[in-house]
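tokens incoming
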């Protein structure tokens, strides 16, 4: 329907085409400059957090993974097990395609090479792909607006919950966003880390011809929601990067590392 703005789960299930999303936002090398700069910012922060920053452990749960794996490329070196999750079955299928090296899987190789370069050895990219495929042990459905967000799936408490560019899309308003963050903190062990990338002052984004909206967030709202979920903000790296206006209307991005308190 023309002019319709989607945000609810059913809309994601019907209208979110994984390949449209991937080619718009993750065409590294051949894509638009703004999208590439944002991806580089993400990869650099992930590298700093997981390779250099000492965040690691047993289990990492990625919430709202979408059809993407870039957010796991540094983490897979420092966690024993990674659980990926999304609301929509087609995104989980797209992930499975890559994990199982099926025909038609998205080609992440230039992005994997970039991360290997950050980590000091571009030539080991195939080794990293193999490592990530081995480390992702489960692919689960999730709905962050529900308690529990992973439904009936039994998962261990995580050492790290990662969520990239997903909560602002999944939540229509600040109250829902704050409740979703409390659910994410509930998946963490005491002392575990919450690592998130948020689009600030987000209005909507395009997946092919379909428009999706979400919640408009300021940096302070994000920090307060994280703190009120029982986590201490350790690092908050905000930049004024924005997407190409035709693809996403936002103003700034914020990368946050927080730690859940001992008794939260
Ligand atoms: N993390 C990926 C994808 C972000 S796109 C990246 O960094 O690019 C936003 C994602 O949020 C989509 O994959 C969508 O399916 C997911 N999503 C939407 N509603 C959700 C909900 N209620 N619970 C969990 N994920 C949801």
């Amino acid at each position: 329907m023309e002019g319709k703005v989607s945000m609810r789960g059913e809309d994601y299930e019907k209208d979110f085409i994984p390949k449209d999303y991937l080619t718009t936002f993750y065409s590294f090398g051949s894509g638009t400059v703004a999208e590439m700069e944002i991806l580089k910012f993400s990869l650099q922060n992930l590298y700093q957090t997981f390779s250099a920053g000492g965040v690691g452990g047993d289990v990492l749960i990625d919430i709202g993974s979408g059809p993407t794996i870039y957010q796991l490329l540094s983490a897979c070196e420092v966690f024993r097990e990674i659980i990926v999750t999304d609301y929509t079955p087609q995104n989980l299928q797209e992930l499975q395609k890559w994990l199982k090296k099926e025909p038609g899987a998205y080609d992440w190789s230039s992005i994997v090479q970039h991360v290997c370069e950050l980590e000091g050895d571009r030539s080991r990219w195939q080794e990293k792909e193999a490592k990530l495929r081995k480390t992702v042990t489960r692919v689960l459905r999730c709905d962050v607006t529900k308690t529990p967000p992973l439904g009936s799936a039994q998962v261990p408490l995580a050492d790290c919950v990662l969520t990239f560019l997903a909560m602002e899309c999944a939540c229509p308003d600040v109250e829902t966003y704050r409740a979703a963050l409390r659910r994410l903190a509930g998946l963490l062990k005491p002392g575990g880390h919450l690592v998130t990338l948020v689009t600030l002052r987000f209005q909507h984004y395009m997946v092919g011809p379909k428009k999706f909206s979400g919640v408009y967030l300021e940096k302070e709202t994000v920090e307060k929601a994280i703190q009120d979920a029982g986590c201490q903000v350790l690092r908050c790296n905000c930049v004024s990067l924005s997407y190409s206006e035709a693809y996403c209307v936002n103003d700034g991005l914020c990368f946050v590392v927080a730690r859940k308190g001992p008794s939260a």
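note: The chain is about 35% helix and 25% strand.
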